[in-house]
Design a protein that fits this description.
globular; 298 residues; binds manganese (II) ion; mainly alpha; Ferritin; 3% strand; 2 domains
Length: 298
């Protein structure tokens, strides 16, 4: 089962500079074939369906634990999309067409389907699909797929990075590039233990170092490329049997007991003319306050 913490894995910058077309591109990193929904659901399904969990514990726990980190990644990408859409419409009455600008943006679903927030789709508006999940049941084949998936994800992150200069998008991508490099290396190490093949020699794919991306370099300087977080109060400790030794770029690999400190989840302002969270947000807030007061919680 899962516990939930009301934190993002990193602090996202708050920049009031709406860019709905950048938000549309970033959607690929949420619901594209190589997006965070795909890493999340691949590792989640593989962990649910894993046979001989106790006998193969380090391999099972590696996949299960990374799946949980990916839950925090979809959360981070969704919040990035939301921040890119902050202020994307004009505050005026419905008769004055406050959402008019949405007709000329790449993705009008931001304006019609949601209150100018993230969608469970890719950058072209196609929904995330369950057949992006590969789970053959053969451990080596599934790990090989996961290694491929992390590197495909890296390719798409780098390309989306090259599509936008927006500081919120770039901060998120810098962090996820570093975390993806940890996951790719951990699957490489697992494959090496099982087969003797030095899979990590393939890395990085594409062959550009994260040091070339300033937002990724910053996280590397904090050693995050060497840290595997253990997303559980007490469980999944056997991942340290795989995530150990030297990082190929130097420094010791380290399992951290617990999640990263992270940052605040942005508290989005209401968008009244999108009726989000309602046409009279103050009335809803009064109701929330009243029930908290009634319950002695405010
Ligand atoms: Mn991820
Ligand atoms: Mn990953």
């Amino acid at each position: 089962m899962y516990l939930r913490i009301h934190r993002l894995q990193i602090e996202l910058p708050r920049v009031k500079n709406p860019d709905p077309d950048a938000a549309a591109a970033v959607q690929e990193l949420f619901g594209g074939r190589f997006g965070e929904m795909s890493t999340l659901m691949n590792y989640t399904m593989q962990s649910f369906n894993f046979r001989q969990k106790s006998k193969l514990m380090p391999f099972y726990e590696l996949i299960a634990n990374i799946a949980t980190e990916e839950l925090g990644h979809i959360e981070l990408v969704a919040n990035t999309v939301n921040l890119l859409l902050e202020g994307a419409s004009e505050a005026k009455a419905p008769k004055d067409a406050p959402l008019e600008s949405g007709t000329s943006k790449r993705n009008s679903h931001f304006y019609i389907l949601t209150g100018q927030t993230a969608l469970a789709t890719n950058s072209m508006g196609a929904p995330w699909q369950g057949d992006y999940v590969f789970n053959s049941g053969d451990l080596v084949l599934d790990l090989l797929h996961n290694f491929f998936l992390e590197n495909g994800a890296r390719m798409h992150k780098l390309r989306v990075y090259e599509m936008t200069r927006h500081p919120v998008a770039r901060e998120m991508i810098g962090y996820l590039l570093v975390r993806g490099s940890v996951h790719a290396l951990s699957y490489a190490l697992a494959l090496e233990e099982l087969t003797g093949v030095d899979v990590k020699k393939l890395l990085p794919i594409p062959k550009i170092s994260d040091e070339n991306i300033p937002e990724a370099k910053k996280f590397r300087e904090h050693g995050m490329h060497r840290k595997l977080y253990r997303f559980s109060p007490d469980d999944y400790k056997s991942i340290a049997a795989i995530w150990q030794g030297e990082h190929p770029d130097g420094g010791a690999l380290e399992v951290v007991g617990g999640p990263p400190e992270g940052g605040e989840i942005p508290d989005l302002e209401p968008v009244k003319d999108s009726f989000a969270p309602g046409y009279d947000p103050d009335e809803l807030a009064e109701i929330a306050q009243a029930i908290l007061k009634r319950s002695g919680l405010a």
